[in-house]
Design brief:
alpha/beta, CBS-domain, 4-stranded mixed sheet, 15 helices
Length: 336
């Protein structure tokens, strides 16, 4: 019993300490939000200039230690949200990588203390060649802050580490501030979902932003059957196209209905082959517009109460038949 009490007390202590860490970092983020001023706007303006017509600049993000890890993450975030960016390691910069920094670039330097010796060569390089530099630091009087064109100052908040040493609250604020810059720039440039997907062709982001038109079977590939056809023709077409459905249309290609594998099973009889296609088809198939997201099609097919749907008719903005999308197509594209 005593061992269980000790274990329970230890568990509660660990949970309380975990909450203390999170609360310390939350307080840091609140203070950071309140501290934003005109310098944040100036930084947005400066980074925006590298996107101007004819500009070939990039956002170069640098940092050392834990700040370097944050800088790597922010470079990926900026790049994926439409601002060309990459990480430069300050130590490697001193051994040749300074050549990666060009005159049209903007440098974003991260250092809580602002006094890391590894930063000095990159700082001097930006000053020598008049390359704009933005500093994110917690020390307004540091070498980094004194040489920067714009200083984004982190509030003086205690680290969540009980010894006040391990970068915790400070790195959280750095990352959040970088995210704020990236998202404001994204909103300012009006990045569309389609443009965003270009930067995320793989992974969950790309999958969620796939449009139906990206993965549907287009009109010219559809198994089309005229309305005066018999089921013998429909079965042959089902086998030839192997899409699990046949679309019944008029001579000018207006959709009349759909015949699926399931319809064949429901109408199975000795005279099935002689029946007309229109007598078997579903005259009210589910439809979706081609510019909708593929995940919307997936939701219709898998989450419509009381219905098992494996195919959707795809139309253009005017309601004309333009394709078909199947549950299998969505699954193969990784949409879940």
């Amino acid at each position: 019993m005593m061992a269980e009490i000790i274990q329970e007390n230890g568990q509660n202590t660990d949970i309380d300490q975990g909450r203390h860490v999170l609360d310390a970092e939350i307080q840091g983020l609140k203070a950071l939000a309140q501290s934003l001023d005109d310098r944040f706007f100036q930084a947005i303006e400066l980074i925006s200039k590298i996107k101007n017509a004819g500009a070939t600049g990039r956002l170069i993000i640098a940092g050392i230690g834990k700040s370097g890890h944050v800088a790597r993450k922010l470079a990926a975030t900026f790049s994926s949200t439409g601002t060309p960016s990459f990480f430069v390691h300050p130590g490697e910069a001193s051994h040749g990588d300074l050549g990666m920094v060009m005159e049209n670039d903007v440098v974003l330097m991260l250092s809580n203390s602002g006094e890391n010796s590894e930063l000095s060569d990159l700082i001097h390089y930006t000053r020598r060649f008049a390359i704009p530099m933005i500093a994110i630091t917690g020390n307004e009087t540091s070498t980094l802050a004194r040489h920067a064109d714009i200083v984004l100052l982190l509030p003086s908040m205690p680290e969540a580490c009980p010894n006040g040493l391990a970068p915790t609250t400070s790195t959280t604020m750095m990352m959040a501030l970088g995210d704020a810059l990236a998202v404001v720039l994204l909103k300012r440039m009006g990045l569309t979902e389609e443009q965003f997907r270009v930067f995320h062709p793989g992974g969950k982001l790309g999958q969620k932003l796939l449009k139906i038109s990206d993965i549907m079977h287009k009109f010219e590939d559809l198994p089309l059957l005229y309305e005066n056809a018999k089921m013998s023709d429909a079965i042959i077409l089902l086998s030839e196209k192997n899409l699990g459905a046949v679309l019944v249309v008029t001579e000018d290609y207006h959709l009349k209905g759909i015949i699926t594998d399931g319809d064949l099973k429901r109408h199975m009889s000795p005279d099935l082959m002689e029946k007309s296609a229109v007598s078997v088809m579903n005259t009210n198939p589910q439809k979706i517009i081609q510019n909708a997201l593929a995940v919307e099609a997936m939701n219709i097919m898998t989450k419509t109460p009381g219905k098992y749907i494996t195919s959707l008719i795809v139309t253009d903005e005017e309601g004309k038949l333009s394709g078909m999308i199947r549950l299998q197509d969505c699954l193969q594209a990784g949409i879940v």
